């Protein structure tokens, strides 16, 4: 679907440019933008390598596991329906911890593993459980202490102080996570999740 949308936008732009007689300006702008994109991409290689290396050292040093243990009490509050010793809890905690440290590459497989484990506990396989929805909102909000990707983009674009966004990023992502999880919890009250057996009983003729 996105491919069709992008194609439609480009086609409309070309038609409008041809109609207004600005096709040459549009072509020049496209070429200049492509050149800028390549320069930024090449500049990102070294910076991203540095940050990913630092994050990998932190991972090997056990920082993620340490942060995961610190987050365990919060997980019990957010996911009360999941047994505390279930593998899903560990995968979710490690995913959130990896995201906090900017380890998106490490966080992705952990997030997939967490969803697979949560699906095992889900009695309604065609409907996302409350725990799955809460985890998805928390994962999407993505609280970050070290926004490595954005720092790298700013540095590649010539920013004099690319790390200045760390404090504002923490505040913004923290507020976003609170809003997302609060909304999910409130909606769960209006649309209660019924287990399979409960749904069959409630739907049975009186």
Count of helix runs: 9
Oligomer: single chain
Radius of gyration, whole Å: 23 Å
- Strand residue percentage: under 5%
**Helix and strand succession?**
HHHHHHHHH
Number of strands: 0
Task: Produce the secondary structure layout.
Blueprint (H helix, E strand, L loop, with lengths): L1 H19 L2 H38 L2 H16 L8 H14 L3 H18 L8 H12 L6 H9 L9 H25 L5 H8 L3
Name the features.
single chain; disordered C terminus; 206 residues; mainly alpha
Short description:
The chain is 77% helix and 0% strand. The protein is mainly α and 206 residues long. The N and C termini lie far apart (46 Å).
Characterization of the model:
The chain has 206 residues and is an all-alpha fold. It has 9 helices and no strands. Helix 1 (2-20) packs antiparallel against helix 2 (23-60) and helix 6 packs antiparallel against helix 8.
């Amino acid at each position: 679907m996105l491919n069709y949308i992008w194609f439609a936008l480009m086609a409309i732009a070309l038609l409008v440019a041809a109609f207004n007689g600005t096709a040459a300006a549009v072509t020049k702008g496209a070429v200049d933008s492509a050149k800028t994109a390549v320069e930024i991409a090449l500049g990102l290689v070294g910076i991203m390598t540095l940050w990913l290396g630092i994050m990998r050292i932190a991972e090997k040093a056990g920082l993620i596991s340490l942060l995961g243990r610190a987050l365990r009490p919060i997980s019990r509050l957010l996911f009360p329906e999941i047994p505390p010793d279930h593998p899903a809890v560990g995968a979710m905690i490690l995913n959130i911890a990896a995201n906090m440290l900017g380890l998106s590459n490490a966080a992705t497989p952990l997030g997939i593993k967490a969803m697979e484990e949560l699906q095992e506990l889900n009695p309604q396989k065609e409907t996302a459980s409350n725990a799955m929805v809460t985890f998805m909102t928390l994962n999407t909000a993505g609280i970050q202490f070290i926004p490595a990707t954005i720092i790298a983009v700013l540095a590649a674009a010539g920013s004099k102080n690319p790390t200045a966004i760390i404090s504002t990023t923490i505040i913004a992502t923290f507020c976003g996570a609170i809003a997302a999880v609060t909304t999910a919890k409130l909606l769960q009250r209006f649309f209660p999740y019924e287990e399979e057996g409960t749904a069959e009983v409630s739907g049975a003729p009186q």
